[in-house]
Structures are given as structure tokens and as C-alpha cells.
Recover the amino acids of this structure.
């Protein structure tokens, strides 16, 4: 087993912080399929462009997404190719642990 350092735990805490917000989690899950522009992501997730901008800035600060300029557009993508399958695994794990979590009114998960 690999030795766990403070750097490892800090990185995991950053991921936990990113996933602690529903909008950030939805952005990360949406980017599993490929890069996206902020305006398209905002429309797809039903949030304002300002909210999207703020959440993308947070995810960049956490080192989870990168931005690429293409003329007047900016495309966001997951910063590491390992992140997409890891998010899928986490999603499946969450459903396995509690398949009814957050599926009804009165969720106590937050």
C-alpha cells in the first residue's frame, strides 16, 4: 500500500470541497463527457452564467478543471484523465451505499 502524505490528504480534501456543492458536482459530472463552454454548461445545468463562472473558478482553484482559450471562447475540461472514471466510481459507490439518498423530499444527506 502507498504511503499517505499530507499532500495526499490535502488533495483529497480539495476534491471533497469541490464535491460538497451540488452545482460543482454537476459540472464535474458534465465534463466527464468532454470539454464544455461556460454558457453551454450554465444552460444545461439551469444556473446563471455568474454562478457558473464562480463555480468554475473554484474548480480551477482546486486543480480539478483546466481552461483552454479558443478565440473568444473558453473551454473547460477535467484537469486529469483519471478524474472522469473516478467520478463515475464515486457515483456508483454513493448509489450502492444508499440508493434512496436524496431521491425524496426531506433528504438528510446534507
Amino acid at each position: 500500500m502507498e504511503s499517505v502524505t499530507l499532500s495526499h490528504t490535502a488533495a483529497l480534501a480539495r476534491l471533497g470541497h469541490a464535491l460538497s456543492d451540488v452545482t460543482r458536482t454537476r459540472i464535474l459530472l458534465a465534463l466527464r463527457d468532454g470539454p464544455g463552454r461556460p454558457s453551454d454548461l450554465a444552460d444545461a445545468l439551469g444556473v446563471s452564467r455568474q454562478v457558473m463562472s464562480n463555480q468554475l473558478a473554484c474548480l480551477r482553484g482546486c486543480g480539478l478543471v483546466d481552461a483552454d482559450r479558443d478565440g473568444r471562447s473558453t473551454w473547460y475540461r477535467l484537469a486529469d484523465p483519471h478524474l472522469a472514471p473516478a467520478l463515475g466510481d464515486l457515483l456508483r459507490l454513493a448509489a450502492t451505499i444508499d440508493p434512496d439518498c436524496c431521491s425524496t423530499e426531506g433528504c438528510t444527506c446534507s
